[in-house]
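Task: encode each sequence below as structure tokens.

Item 1
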Amino acid sequence: MVFIAFILAAFVFVKTVSYGIYEWKQNQNKVASIIIFILSFVVLFFTPFLVYLR
């Protein structure tokens, strides 16, 4: 179960980081892209941990 959660979290991480890069390059919205990067790292690291605690 942890492996499946990690794969899904990695998929969401890649999609979210790519959107953060899009915000940075296309819209010149640096504050929003930094917040998106931080949230994507939080999701990547805490999702398998929370599944393990369950």
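Item 2
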Amino acid sequence: MPLPDFPVRKDIRGIGLSDWAVYAKGLSDKFNYTNTFYHKEPKLDIIDIKSSGYCDLDFLISSEVFEHVMPPVDRIFQNTHSLLKPDGFMVLTVPYMLKLKETMEHFPGLRDFSIQKKNGTYILKNTKADGSVQCFENLRFHGGQGATLELRVFAYEALLEVLQDSGFSKVLTCGEPFLEYGIFWEFPNSLPIVARP
């Protein structure tokens, strides 16, 4: 059912992680919905949810966020799971590839880093746990405000595994076209996922 046709249900509680303003407005009109952000209020850091005040959610939307969050990735999904009601769900989009065997972390050992501009280009300087320093070039940013540096591209099978290990027992990859709504997936990578505890 398209969002504009959905009845108003303020008893349904959900959050978005930096959702796009166009659908965030529609969601807040229909549900008890809050669009949260990493870099501004209302804030939610998915790595540190203890003080967030969010729990017992019917739904959580994370669209193009988890590729930007500091490792380890299992903590991201465990925290998301803990925010949901037992019958809640997460809508997830992240960059993933079917052909990858393992999730591709662009900056292994990322711990204490800064992004600096050098000779007109950005570099990432990281101090690892052992004190050694790494420098990375050719950084990929996804635009927007806040922390938009791409840290990883998920492997599809690894993504399914971390979801299952984090307590999501029902995972649906949404690859079906809905032409009447203009939805057609030309490629099988990075399709939306719905995950339930």
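Check on item 2: Residues 73-83 form the longest helix (11 residues). The chain is about 15% helix and 35% strand.
End of task.
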